[in-house]
Each structure stands twice: as structure tokens, then as C-alpha cells.
Amino acid sequence: MTSRRTLKVAEALRETIATQILFGLKDPRVKNVTVLGVKVSGDLRNAKVYVSVMGDEKTQSLTMHGLNSARGFLQSKIADELNLRYTPILEFVLDDGVKKSIRASELLRGVIPESDQSAEESVASDEETTAAPEDSPVE
């Protein structure tokens, strides 16, 4: 069971890491990174940082290498900003859940519009056949 303190520390770590990646890192390899979440161990000594990287596999690999290279810098910034007894050792994990959800929505967009268009066309053709022209005399 996760304690309230662990959850608070995880959220503070996520905010600090995301801010430092966005504004503090000067590494050109680290770009298009989104920090999705942080999972902290019970003793607060280790933290898994789940990140999403947009781009192809080569870009993702370079970005992950850049993040692992910047681990010490990020840990020093965490030590400066957060009042913790121990600074957690960071482990970056590539989370491709966002990429999978984008792919799923693209697949759904490819399927759904075809069925919607055919339904709209059949409704439009039904309306045209049942509607009486305005110019015709009504008996």
C-alpha cells in the first residue's frame, strides 16, 4: 500500500524533473519529452520516472541516453529543491502508452468516418424522397 507521503514525494519529483528537463537541461538530445509519472520506492531512495518521447525509435533511444546522462544533474536539482533525507536515485523508463493510444485513435478515425458517411448519405437520401417540393401545389 502506498502512503500519502510517498505519493506527495512522487508528485513533487515529477514536477521538479519535468521543469528541469524543460528549462534546465541544455542537452540537444533531450527534446519532445513528457514526464508522465514517478513511482517512488517505500524508503524513498529509488524513483522510476516514466517518460514519453515523441519521434521514431532512433530519436527515442538518443533521448533516453541523454536523460540517463543527465541523471546526476537532475538528482542535484532535486536535492536543492526538495527537503528530503535521501535524494532518490532516478531510473528513466520509456512509456509508450501515449504512442499506442495515438495509434489506436488513428485506427478508429480510419474506421468510424466511413460508417458515419454512409449513414449520413442514407439519411440525406431518405429526407429528399420524403420531403415535398415547396413549389408544388398542396391538395
Question: How do the strands and helices of this protein lay out in sequence?
Answer:
Layout: H1 4-24, E1 33-40, E2 46-53, H2 57-69, H3 71-81, E3 89-94, H4 97-130
Parallel strand pairs: 2-3
Antiparallel strand pairs: 1-2
Order of helices and strands: HEEHHEH
Main sheet summary? 3 strands, mixed
Question: Which CATH architecture of the domain at 4-96?
Answer: 2-Layer Sandwich
Distance between the termini: 78 Å
Beta-strand segment tally: 3
What is the CATH fold-level name of the domain at 4-96?
GMP Synthetase, Chain A, domain 3
Task: For the structure shown, list the relevant keywords.
single chain, 139 residues, alpha+beta, GMP Synthetase, Chain A, domain 3, three-stranded mixed beta sheet, 57% helix
Overview of this protein structure:
With 139 residues, the chain is α+β, with helices and mostly antiparallel strands. The chain has a domain at 4-96: K homology (KH) domain (GMP Synthetase, Chain A, domain 3, 2-Layer Sandwich), CATH 3.30.300. It has 4 helices and 3 strands. The chain has helices at 4-24, 57-69, 71-81, 97-130, and strands at residues 33-40, 46-53, 89-94. The protein has a 3-stranded mixed β-sheet, with helices on both faces. Helix 1 crosses helix 3. The chain is globular and about 55 Å long. The model has no long low-confidence stretch (mean pLDDT 84).
